[in-house]
Amino acid sequence: MISLIKDHIISKIRGLINIPFEIAQKKLRPLINLEKFNNEEVIFVMSQKDVKSAMGNEVLPVKIETDSVLLKVFENGSSNDQILSFSVDKNYFVKTLLSNVGLPREKLKNQHVLVEFSSPNIAKPFHIGHLRSTIVGNFVANCCKSLYGRVTKLNYLGDWGVQVGYVKAGLEDLNISTEQLSQDPIRLLYKAYVDAYNRNDTEERAKSFFSELEHGTCSEDNKVFWENVRELSMNNLRDTYSDLEIKFDEYCYESDYKIANIKELLKNLESHGVAKRKSPNDLLVRFCRYYAPNQAMKYH
């Protein structure tokens, strides 16, 4: 397994920074990533910036002892973030990957794996893209369960956003009654959404509806409307998943992260080092080992 190669690299590093292996393993293993695997070479990488964040400003020396597994260590990257690269013996890498084929599950380290998949939007048909994600995700979850024993299958549903306002506007303008909606909910909800979205006079109504919903200033009737749309969609999705014989352990919703919770969420992202402040109103989320300026999360 790749974790064995990561641990081999960590064992080489540990002797230079003088900390217990278990601590080094916990802090450094998540930072080591497979960068390249082809016929020529196998390269693992680790960001010095990530190391400093995890180890309290510790910087790893480049002169790490090599051996028959770890063939070469070199450094590259920008002046702001040097990248340590570890060249690993290709034959050892392949042998390690194949070493767990047919291995009994009890011999593998027990881990809790979260697999999030499917994740459609409410008020819209379950299309081929969702079907693909659902089948692939369920396959991955079954593989993880076979290997590790404990898996949580999570479905993160899109029940929030201006789309809800478009559905509301479309239902009103098309004069679709509650009785009609109950007989063919998904088709009519989607029809209402498409009708409203494609007209120029509905955008402000849709945004206004969702703004009130998001800030908690909407009427009780509008809140109940949104809850009913979500429930109608959920009932349809449950039937679809039942036909596919797929069960989820948990359902989460975009509405779980309303504007009232966002500031606290942003504080947590920053305090845990997931996001970095660029300006008073901009946070940057780190993707891989680079800060991507065009991926700023702006909030007010």
UniProtKB/TrEMBL annotation:
InterPro entries: aa-tRNA-synth_I_CS, Arg-tRNA-ligase, ArgRS_core, Rossmann-like_a/b/a_fold. One of its GO terms (molecular function) is arginine-tRNA ligase activity. One of its GO terms (biological process) is arginyl-tRNA aminoacylation. Residues 96-278 form the Arginyl-tRNA synthetase catalytic core domain. Keywords: Aminoacyl-tRNA synthetase, ATP-binding, Ligase, Nucleotide-binding, Protein biosynthesis. GO terms for cellular component: mitochondrion. Pfam families: tRNA-synt_1d. Catalyzes the attachment of arginine to tRNA(Arg) in a two-step reaction: arginine is first activated by ATP to form Arg-AMP and then transferred to the acceptor end of tRNA(Arg). Belongs to the class-I aminoacyl-tRNA synthetase family. This is Probable arginine--tRNA ligase, mitochondrial. It comes from Rhynocoris fuscipes.
